């Protein structure tokens, strides 16, 4: 798999993406050259998970939504094959045992000394704004002790406006921020306040690097509201009597 990853990056897809999108990068020296690291970034487009590994000097293993690994038919098989060979792992967003398994997968990546990419928002932003982070990243940080490298991915929110099937060819940038050390929490009892504090500190750095407007709500909640408001409302059937013409008497 590692061989395919480098072949994809340096020979097959990488050069094409560099020509088409002319990506720029800042702060590469902030990314540790070895050892575990959590790369936490904003999320506006599915290609975020392509541009960060493309520009990072070391492999980045991403936790991707599990839907990419459970598709059926030929398309599902191809998608699953691509994501596995591209260093991506399934992540369950439903909570409970599924989310715990995703957490363990992430910790395994870090314990092996690799860099793990994660989007604290949990899903793509619906409008280019930065939304409240999920505390799963704080659990990863506190259990692994790995440093967090905040990342701002710039311009991908403009790649594919609603209704457009093919992404626009425009420049995209990635900014790696200074590593964040949370060793001050080592040995302390973990509670929801600590998890929220760590998560918010990471989100603040992402906001500072990206320049995005911050919204203190979960992106998934906003998406649900947008979908609900977009659905056509059912109209009540007309009252039987009201449907009669003025000169018509109701039947006995």
Automatic annotation (TrEMBL):
Domain of life: Bacteria
Region entry Disordered, spans: 226-252
GO molecular function: acyltransferase activity
Compositional bias per record (Basic and acidic residues), positions renumbered to this chain: 233-252
One of the Pfam families matching this protein, by short name: Acyltransferase
Phosphoprotein recorded as keyword: no
Domain Phospholipid/glycerol acyltransferase: 37-156
InterPro entries: Plipid/glycerol_acylTrfase
Keywords from the UniProt entry: Acyltransferase, Transferase
UniProt keyword annotation of Transmembrane helix present: no
Protein name as catalogued: 1-acyl-sn-glycerol-3-phosphate acyltransferase
Native source organism of the sequence: Brevibacterium sediminis
Origin organism lineage: Bacteria, Bacillati, Actinomycetota, Actinomycetes, Micrococcales
């Amino acid at each position: 798999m590692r061989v395919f990853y480098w072949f994809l990056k340096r020979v097959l897809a990488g050069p094409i993406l560099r020509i088409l999108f002319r990506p720029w990068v800042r702060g590469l020296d902030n990314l540790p050259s070895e050892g575990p690291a959590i790369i936490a970034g904003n999320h506006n487009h599915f290609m975020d998970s392509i541009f960060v590994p493309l520009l990072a000097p070391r492999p980045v293993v991403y936790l991707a939504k599990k839907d990419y690994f459970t598709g059926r038919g030929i398309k599902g098989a191809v998608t699953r094959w691509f994501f596995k060979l591209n260093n991506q792992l399934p992540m369950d967003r439903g909570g409970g045992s599924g989310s715990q398994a995703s957490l363990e997968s992430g910790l395994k990546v870090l314990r092996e000394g690799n860099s793990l990419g994660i989007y604290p928002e949990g899903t793509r932003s619906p409008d280019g704004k930065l939304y409240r982070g999920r505390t799963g990243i704080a659990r990863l940080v506190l259990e692994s002790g790995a440093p967090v490298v905040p990342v701002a991915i710039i311009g991908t929110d403009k790649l594919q406006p609603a209704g457009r099937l093919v992404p626009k060819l425009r420049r995209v940038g990635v900014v790696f921020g200074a590593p964040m050390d949370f060793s001050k929490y080592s040995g302390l009892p973990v509670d929801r306040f600590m998890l929220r504090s760590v998560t918010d500190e990471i989100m603040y750095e992402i906001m500072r690097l990206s320049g995005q407007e911050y919204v203190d709500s979960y992106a998934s909640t906003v998406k649900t509201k947008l979908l609900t408001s977009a659905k056509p409302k059912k109209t009540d059937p007309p009252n039987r009597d009201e449907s009669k013409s003025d000169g018509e008497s109701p039947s006995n």
